[in-house]
Amino acid sequence: MKRLAMAGVLLPLLWLGACNSSGPVRRVSEPAASIQQLSVRADGSWSVDLRIDNFSSMPMRFDGISLAVSVGDQPAGTLQGQPALSIGPETADVATLALVPAAGAKILIADALAAGRSIGYRLQGSLTAAPQDAGARTFRIERDNTLSPVPGLPGVLR
Question: In the predicted model, what is the mean pLDDT of residues 17-26?
Fold first, then answer.
């Protein structure tokens, strides 16, 4: 009886020990992207600070960006780049990309800045990312949000 009771205590402990030795769970989750800041340059082109959120439980390397940008109801163009940006688990970083916007989008942004009002934007496209020890995956991105003029910083929206 004593051996049976001892086995009843030791077996669950050994089973728990085996489960814990397998290490932390590695999970790849869909990333997100949003415009953190849009700056209008003197030549009319835009500098876009794109915030990339890594919701995975492991570091991810972001190697490709292709996002169609619309402001208001006007297509602005496509943000494209190969940032080669490593982002730690469950954190974010920023990639700065240049965009020469379409005329209609350029006018809408200039109007929003002049009037001091917010304007909606939409991102549609993909991010290509890979964990350190695996192949790359392409993630679909769709994001609607708003940009507002930054007081004291002419030509900047956040």
Answer: 62
Q: What are the DSSP calls for the chain, one per residue?
A: -HHHHHHHHHHHHHHHHHHHTT-S-------EEEEEEEEE-TTS-EEEEEEEEE-SSS-EEEEEEEEEEEETTEEEEEEEE---EEE-TTEEEEEEEEE---HHHHHHHHHHHHHT--EEEEEEEEEEEEETTS--EEEEEEEEEEE-BPTTSTTEE-
Q: What is the pTM of this model?
A: 0.84
Q: Which two tokens stand for residue 124?
A: 């549609």
Residue 4 — pLDDT band, cuts 50, 70, 90?
low
Give the domain 27-157 fold.
Answer: Immunoglobulin-like (2.60.40)
CB hemisphere CA count around 42 (13 angstroms)? 0
Residue boundaries of the structural domains of the chain: 27-157
